[in-house]
Amino acid sequence: MIIDISRKLNAHTPTWPGDRPFSYDLTWSKEDTGSVNVGQIASSCHTATHVDAPFHFNSHGTTIDQLPLELFIGRAKVVDVSTKWLIKPEDLAFIDFSQTKRLLLKTNAWSDPSTFPKEIPQLDPSLGEYLNRHGVELLGVDLPSVDPLDSKTLDMHHALEENHIHILEGLDLSAVEPGDYRLTALPLFIEGADGSPVRAILETIDQS
C-alpha cells in the first residue's frame, strides 16, 4: 500500500510569512495552441513538503543537486512524539535504530493544513549527535521547520548538518501509524538550489 505524505500545492497552500506563495497558471490553452495546454508554476523552494539543502542555512553548504539520492529512498521509521512539546534524545530511547537510517517524527502539531502554524514543538539540538550515533542520515518532520518558527540561529539545522543528517520538512503524517515503511521523497534536480519540493510517499513493508 502507498501512503501519500505530501501536502497539496495550490493557491491556498500556506507559506512562510513573507515568502512567495505557490501558484500554477495556464500559460497557453489548447484553444490557443490548437494542440496542448501548457502551465507554469512559481513557488518558494520551502513550501509544503520539501527538502532543505545545507546551502539553505550555510552559504558554504551543499546544494540540492549535490545530495545523494539514496538519502531519500529506503527504509524509514515513523515515531509518534505527539505528546511532547520539547523532543529530546530520551524521548527516542525506546527506538530500535538497527535498521533505521531515516527517522520521521509525527508531532500532529500542524493540524490545520490550510493555515501556517503559529507555534510548533521544539527539537533539542542534542538530537543531532544522538541520531548520528545511532546511524540516522535523514530526519523528517510534519512541521514547517526543525527549528522554532522565529529562530534566527537555526540551532537544530546546524546540529543536524554537523552530524551529517539531512532534513525533510512539511510532511503530512496524520494518517500514518507508527512503524517501519519504505520512504520515497526525491527532490528535484535543481542546480545550485537551497531546497526543493518533493512528492513524498510511504510504502508498507511486508512483516511476514
TrEMBL record:
Positions annotated to bind Zn(2+) 2 = 52, 157, 169
| Alphabetic keyword roster | Hydrolase, Metal-binding, Tryptophan catabolism, Zinc
Gene Ontology BP annotations: L-tryptophan catabolic process to kynurenine
| Required co-factors | Zn(2+)
Positions with a binding annotation for substrate? 16
Q: Which Pfam families match?
A: Cyclase
- Active-site residues, record numbering mapped to chain: 56
Kindly state which reaction or reactions the protein catalyses.
N-formyl-L-kynurenine + H2O = L-kynurenine + formate + H(+)
Cite the EC number: 3.5.1.9
In which residues is Zn(2+) 1 bound?
46, 50, 52, 169
One GO molecular function term?
A: zinc ion binding
Q: Which SUPFAM superfamilies match?
A: Putative cyclase
Could you give the cofactor binding note from the entry?
Binds 2 zinc ions per subunit.
Specify the domain of life of the species encoding this protein.
Bacteria
* UniProt similarity note: Belongs to the Cyclase 1 superfamily. KynB family.
Q: Which NCBIfam families match?
A: trp_arylform (TIGR03035)
Outline the subunit composition. Homodimer.
What is the documented function of this protein? Catalyzes the hydrolysis of N-formyl-L-kynurenine to L-kynurenine, the second step in the kynurenine pathway of tryptophan degradation.
The name of this protein is Kynurenine formamidase
Q: Taxonomically, what lineage is the organism?
A: Bacteria, Bacillati, Bacillota, Bacilli, Bacillales
